[in-house]
Amino acid sequence: MFLPQRWILQARPWTRALSQKEGGRFPPCEGAMLLPGSFNNKVALITGGGTGLGRAMTTTLSSLGAHCFIASRKLDVLQKTAEEISTQTGNKVQAIQCDVRDPRAVAACVDQLVELAGLPDVIINNAAGNFVSPSERLSANAWKTITDIVLNGTAYVTLEVGKRLIQAGKGASFLAITTIYAESGSGFVVPSAAAKSGVETLCKSLAAEWGRYGMRFNVIQPGPIRTKGAFSRLDPTGQFETSMIGRIPAGRLGTPGEIANLAAYLVSDYASWVSGAVIRMDGGEYVSMAGEFNALQKVSPEQWDVMEAMIRKTKGSS
Ligand SMILES: CCCCC/C=C\C/C=C\C/C=C\C=C\C(=O)SCCNC(=O)CCNC(=O)[C@H](O)C(C)(C)COP(=O)(O)OP(=O)(O)OC[C@H]1O[C@@H](n2cnc3c(N)ncnc32)[C@H](O)[C@@H]1OP(=O)(O)O
Ligand SMILES: NC(=O)C1=CN([C@@H]2O[C@H](COP(=O)(O)OP(=O)(O)OC[C@H]3O[C@@H](n4cnc5c(N)ncnc54)[C@H](OP(=O)(O)O)[C@@H]3O)[C@@H](O)[C@H]2O)C=CC1
User: Fold this and answer.
1) Backbone angles phi, psi at 49, to 5 degrees
2) Cα 35 from Cα 41, distance rounded (Å)
3) Percentage of residues in the chain having pLDDT higher than 90
4) Helix intervals (H) in 148-255
5) DSSP per residue, 67-136
6) Is residue 230 predicted with pLDDT exceeding 70?
7) Which uninterrupted H or E stretch holds 219?
8) With contact defined as beta carbons under 8 Å apart, do 125 and 47 qualify?
9) Nearest atom within ligand 1 for CA of residue 229
10) Which residues have any ligand 2 atom within 6 Å of their CB?
11) Which residues contact 308 (CB under 8 A, 6 or more apart)?
């Protein structure tokens, strides 16, 4: 094998909770935050709801009373998750197989949902595909695969549900999950970065255009959260996790339950005056990476004494 010794893969702890030490300076608080019953009589569609953050958002909405539908490609995964959440919350969670890259499959998924529960009140565009790769290694199909899932998939779901809502004169709340690099761009995940910023533009545009139909559109940009789906494709050897945590001012990764609480608020009636918002939730990672002088955190008090004396000694600029 060509990988250095320290890269050798070990069993990755995808699903374990953060240890007390990993809780950092701001331990997570994950229990459902809204009042019980906040989503009674509401129907929610969550794409990619079988795993990771989608599963967590489904669990929170379901625990607050929503009738949830989770949709993605792997029906067995969806069914298992649906059953587990439903057992936990006592509310219905149903699985619908759907590849969001296929507009006909999306239409059939929405047909099924409408047949079972009527038009949804909440739509969370969470499904995504991603992997790290130098861009010069990407084939046209690699580019198409990621942008089809992320941007086109979100557009197909949004248009399919949105048109039916308009026809029925019913409102709804849409949420999309993007990422902090949707704003900055990022090398090595270029199809994802391009597609995620397209998703943000789509949401902001429709927040303006479809508000008149009673639809709201918001976006959450999560920072790094340990899920198998993300970390197995973005940090396959596990070598970047420690340095990533080191640049997060909160001192730890995020947790799925924290995203789920923000998501539940944004799609709830408590947020009925929030539309077109893009909310970053990343423990401060984005600003920490962006600030030109933030590396000065490494300077010791003794080094500051020397630097301050040098600066004070300097008079004028010539
Ligand atoms: C500094 C380091 C930081 C470390 C960061 C660590 C943590 C994360 C921090 C932040 C995360 C921020 C954002 C996260 C965003 C996310 O979206 S994470 C969610 C990720 N989840 C998923 O991707 C789940 C779904 N994914 C999949 O099913 C697959 O991975 C895939 C997207 C590839 C789709 O599968 P499928 O449809 O079966 O496609 P194929 O396997 O047929 O592949 C299609 C084409 O793509 C090419 N390809 C596949 N993998 C690679 C690769 N690794 N490199 C290059 N190219 C690849 C494949 O060859 C096909 O193209 P061709 O037909 O061969 O031309
Ligand atoms: N974890 C993190 O650090 C971060 C995650 N995010 C975002 O959070 C969201 C969830 O990611 P996460 O939970 O980490 O990762 P997961 O891989 O667990 O979630 C992605 C989900 O998308 C579904 N999916 C993929 N392709 C398709 C498709 N063609 N049609 C329908 N569904 C599909 C997958 O299900 P299936 O395989 O059954 O189709 C899976 O459930 C994504 O939007 C991601 O970009 C953003 C920033 C950070």
Assistant:
1) -80, 0
2) 14
3) 91
4) 153-168, 181-184, 190-209, 228-234, 241-246
5) EEEEEES-HHHHHHHHHHHHHHHSS-EEEEE--TT-HHHHHHHHHHHHHHH-S-SEEEE---------GG
6) yes
7) strand 215-222
8) yes
9) 21
10) 47-48, 50-54, 72-74, 77, 98-101, 126-129, 149, 153, 177, 179, 222, 224-225, 227, 229-230
11) none
d(CA 25, CA 2) in angstroms, rounded, equals 38
pLDDT tens-digit profile of 171-224? 999 999 999 999 999 999 999 999 999 999 999 999 999 999 999 999 999 999
What is the structure's pLDDT at 22? 65
Judge contact between 216 and 272, C-beta under 8 A: yes
Band (pLDDT 50/70/90 cuts) for residue 30 is confident
Q: What is the largest CA-CA distance in the chain?
A: 77
Residue with tokens 């255009």: 209
Identify the three-state secondary structure at position 64. coil
Q: Give the pLDDT band of residue 1 (cuts 50, 70, 90).
A: very low
Give the separation between CA 40 and CA 90, rounded to whole angstroms. 12
The CATH number assigned to the domain with range 33-313 reads 3.40.50.720
β-strands 215-222, 67-72 pairing? unpaired
Look at residue 47 and give its three-state secondary structure.
Answer: strand
Q: What residue type is assigned to position 38 of the chain?
A: S
Residues identified as active-site:
181
This prediction's pTM: 0.95
